[in-house]
Amino acid sequence: MKHISIFILCISPYLILPNPQANDWKLKKTSDGIEVFTRSSELSDLDEFKGIGNINAPLEQIIKVFQNADQMSYWSPNCEESRLMERQGNVQIHYTISGAPFPIQDRDAFTQFKYIPQDNGMKIEISAIPQYGPENEDYVRIQYATGFWMLEKISENKTKVTYQLQADPGGSIPGWLANTGSVDTPLNTIKSLREYLK
Question: Is residue 9 situated within a structural domain?
Fold first, then answer.
């Protein structure tokens, strides 16, 4: 079932739009110390998700991993290609391609990553910018994704991470099927990031 999460891309690296009508968060799964919550969205058929867990690595090291766009395919599930398109101050723009099992078409995305220092960590706001570059007929362009990673220092070698995302994969993926990825994606992404940082 891990491939169902392809629509999330590697955006693993995300600012959630205010939604006062949204349901409360519901705990869907706990595994290896990672908690995954979901809630319905008025802006997409896909449930919004939030994954929370700890990583045994310094805050600064994790930030460098996110900033290295060309290496994202090594730790973000289903990410086949990722490259840095632009960097200006605290903002980076990445281009990513995510693989999908047949017959679902692969997805691509241009995504903005904005780094905002916090008192005890770093918030990385993420938003899709579909008009940044021309579309490729080989891929379905992600039109909407918004969310964040929150990285909070616990100690010199331990960091709390929160990965929250609301997105619409586009194309012909049924909402009920895509929502399986709303649980698998944050769980597998945080696990993969842990492994990469060992």
Answer: no
| Parent domain of 173 | 26-197
Tokens 């994704």 sit at which residue?
Answer: 145
Residue with tokens 């586009």: 170
Distance, CA of 57 to CA of 51 (rounded, Å): 18
Q: Considering Cα of 113, then 39, then 50, then 99, what sign does the dihedral take?
A: negative
pLDDT of 119-143, one tens digit each? 999 999 999 999 999 999 999 999 9
Whether 124 and 114 have beta carbons less than 8 Å apart is answered as yes
pTM: 0.85
Domain assignment of residue 16, yes or no: no
**Is residue 1 one of the residues assigned to a domain?**
no
CA dist 34 and 66 (Å) reads 20
